[in-house]
Write a structure and sequence with these properties.
With 415 residues, the chain is α/β, with parallel strands linked by helices. It folds into 2 domains: 138 residues, Aspartate Aminotransferase, domain 1, CATH 3.90.1150; 258 residues, Type I PLP-dependent aspartate aminotransferase-like (Major domain) (Aspartate Aminotransferase, domain 2). It has 12 helices and 16 strands. It binds 4'-deoxy-4'-aminopyridoxal-5'-phosphate. 4'-deoxy-4'-aminopyridoxal-5'-phosphate binds next to helix 4.
Length: 415
C-alpha cells in the first residue's frame, strides 16, 4: 500500500508498482527525487512537443499568471485568447473559421459532438447517430468513451454509453470493407463521422493510408454528413505535418486539438468549426446558443502558453526538427524491425511502434507490466499499450537518448 492518498489514473495500485517522484524536467529528460535521469520517450502522454519546460512557454505562463490569471469566458474575453484564436486561424485550414476553447482532448471531443448535434437540430432536421472507426479512442468522459472502442477501458461503464455505428478499421488489404460499411452507414442519415486521422492511438497505434482518409471524407461530404477529425494526438506535427489531415488533403467540418496546443505545458483544447456549424447556432434566440462551458474555459494562463507555442511554430524551425526526428526514428526502427520477437514495425511521422507478440495479447496482457518495469529499470519512460511498444518523443530528443530507447525495446523483445 502506498502512503499517498493519491489515486493515479490508469494505475493498478494493488500491484504495488513504484511511483517515481519527479522533481523537474528539461528537454526530453525527467529528473527524479532519487537522482535519476529518465528519458521521456512518450512525451508525457503525447503532449510535450518542443521539450519540457521550454523557456518561452515557461516565461509566458509566469508573465500571464502575474497579469490576469482567470476570467469568466462567457461574455468576456482577453488578449491571450484572441492571440491563440488568430494564431490558429493563420495556420489551420481557412474553412475552420471558429474556435471554441475547452480544457482537454476529451472535452474538445465532447464539444465537437455537441456542435454536430446542435447543427442538425437548429437546421430543423435533428440527427443523433454518430459513426466511429473501430479501435478508436477519444477520451474517458462518458460521451468520449461512447464513441471509442468498447473493451477493458470501459467495461464497467458500458450500460451508460450511447449507441454508435462502428465502421471496421481500414486494415491493409481490407480498405474496401471499410468504405462499403461507411457507404451503408451514411445511408442512415447519421449526424457525423468522427475519426483519428491516419493513426488510431490508444487503440494500438494502427496506421492507415491517406487515400482512405480522403475517400472517407469525400463520402461524408457527398452524403452531407459532418466529418470530425480528432487530431488531439496527431496534431502539432506528430505525423510529420502540422495536421495529419493535410497528408490526405482533407479539411474536416470540425477539428479537435489539445495536447501540443500549449507545447504540452498546461491543459487547453480547442474545437474548431466551419462557418455553417457556427451559423446554425447564431440567432437572436437565446435558446440556440451553444450550451457548453467549464469554469476554466480559455484560462488566460493556458492561452498564454498556447500563444507562446504558436510563436515558436512561427519563429523556430519546428518543422525542420520534426523532419530530422522522422529520419532518425526511421533508421532506428528499421534496425529494430529485424530483431527476433519484434513484429509489425510501423511509423508515421515522429510516431514509431512495434508489437512484441507472444503470450496474451491486448491491453491487459501480463507482459505489459513486465515491459513497463523493464523500461523503468532502464530509466526510460515507455508505456506499452498491451504488447505494443511505441516511441513518441519530444522533437528535441537527442541521438544518444533515442539509441537507448531503441536498444531497450530490442532487448525487451527477448523478455
Ligand atoms: N483523442 C485522442 C485521439 C487521444 O489520443 C486522446 C488522449 N490520449 C484524447 C482524445 C483525450 O484527450 P485527454 O486525455 O486530454 O482528455
Amino acid at each position: 500500500m502506498s502512503d499517498s492518498p493519491i489515486w493515479h489514473p490508469f494505475t493498478q495500485h494493488g500491484l504495488g508498482e513504484p511511483i517515481p517522484l519527479v522533481t523537474h524536467a528539461s528537454g526530453a529528460a525527467l529528473y527524479t527525487a532519487d537522482g535519476r535521469r529518465i528519458v521521456d520517450a512518450i512525451s508525457s502522454w503525447w503532449v510535450t512537443t518542443h521539450g519540457h519546460a521550454h523557456p518561452r512557454i515557461a516565461a509566458a505562463i509566469a508573465d500571464q499568471a502575474a497579469r490576469l490569471d482567470q476570467i469568466i469566458f462567457a461574455g468576456w474575453t482577453h488578449q491571450p485568447a484572441l492571440d491563440v484564436a488568430e494564431g490558429l486561424r493563420a495556420i489551420m485550414p481557412p474553412a475552420l473559421t471558429r474556435v471554441f476553447f475547452s480544457d482537454s482532448g476529451s472535452t474538445a471531443v465532447e464539444v465537437a459532438l455537441k456542435m454536430a448535434l446542435g447543427y442538425w437540430l437548429h437546421r430543423g432536421t435533428p440527427r443523433h447517430r454518430i459513426l466511429v472507426l473501430e479501435h478508436g479512442y477519444h477520451g474517458d468522459t462518458i460521451g468520449a468513451m461512447s464513441i471509442g472502442a468498447r473493451g477493458a477501458f470501459n467495461r464497467a461503464y458500458e450500460p451508460l454509453l450511447f449507441d454508435v455505428a462502428t465502421i471496421p478499421f481500414p486494415a491493409e488489404g481490407a480498405e474496401q470493407v471499410t468504405l462499403d460499411a461507411l457507404a451503408a452507414a451514411l445511408a442512415d442519415d447519421p449526424a457525423a463521422l468522427i475519426i483519428e486521422p491516419l493513426i488510431v492511438g490508444a487503440g494500438g497505434m494502427l496506421t492507415y493510408p491517406p487515400h482512405v482518409l480522403a475517400t472517407m471524407r469525400r463520402m461524408c461530404a457527398d452524403a452531407g454528413v459532418l466529418f470530425i477529425a480528432d487530431e488531439v494526438m496527431t496534431g502539432w506535427g506528430r505525423t510529420g505535418t502540422l495536421l495529419a489531415c493535410e497528408q490526405a488533403g482533407v479539411v474536416p467540418d470540425i477539428l479537435c486539438l489539445s495536447k501540443g496546443l500549449t507545447g504540452g505545458a498546461v491543459p487547453l483544447a480547442v474545437t474548431m468549426a466551419s462557418e455553417p456549424i457556427y451559423q446554425a447556432h447564431y440567432a437572436a434566440d437565446r435558446a440556440r446558443m451553444f450550451f457548453h462551458s467549464s469554469s476554466y474555459t480559455a484560462n488566460p494562463i493556458a492561452c498564454a502558453a498556447a500563444a507562446a507555442n504558436l510563436a515558436i511554430w512561427r519563429e523556430e524551425p519546428v518543422m525542420g526538427r520534426i523532419k530530422t526526428l522522422v529520419e532518425r526514428q526511421r533508421v532506428r526502427l528499421s534496425a529494430l524491425a529485424n530483431v527476433p520477437g519484434v513484429a509489425n514495425a510501423r511509423q508515421i511521422g515522429t510516431i514509431a511502434a512495434v508489437d512484441l507478440p507472444g503470450g496474451e495479447v491486448g491491453y491487459l496482457s501480463d507482459r505489459s507490466p513486465r515491459l513497463l518495469a523493464f523500461f523503468r529499470e532502464r530509466d526510460l519512460l515507455l508505456r506499452p499499450l498491451g504488447t505494443t511498444v511505441y516511441v513518441m518523443p519530444p522533437y528535441c530528443i537527442d541521438d544518444g537518448d533515442l539509441d537507448e530507447v531503441y536498444a531497450a525495446i530490442g532487448e525487451a523483445a527477448g523478455l
